[in-house]
Design brief:
By secondary structure, the protein is mainly beta. The chain has a single domain, classed as Sandwich (Immunoglobulin-like). It is 11% helix and 40% strand. A hairpin with a 2-residue loop joins strand 8 and strand 9. The protein is elongated, with a radius of gyration of 20 Å.
Amino acid sequence: MDYIKIRFSNSLDDLESKLDQTIAGMFQSMGPSFSSKSTWKPPLDIFETKEKIYIVAELAGVDKDNMELEINPRAMRIFGKRVPKPPAKDGRYRLAEIQYGHFERILYMRTPIVMETVSARYSNGFLHIEMEKTPHQAKQKVPISIE
């Protein structure tokens, strides 16, 4: 069985630096004068139940070895690259709409997740991620002392 790389982290430091890169990505989309590195964002579907969060990322044409998933209790990052196939030597493009190169999506969870139960599988161009939510803690009354 082939596995998708999943990295677990307890700090948001790595994701914060990635957020900085994402902000820089906004300028990349404004045109080539801002940056030569292009990134694209794969479309996602997110479905939630009381106990779990399900995410599906459309990554058609991305080799499993070219994608990674990083996760901590409050955030998730999907990133990698889609490599273009070279066209025929004697042909030329009439239309080129498929995005190639590096991609990245960062999602912040409204509810903390149980990192040990995260699973991911790649099938027919879709990355399926399943995460279990941390159970809600019961409220506890704290006695207040008088001095």
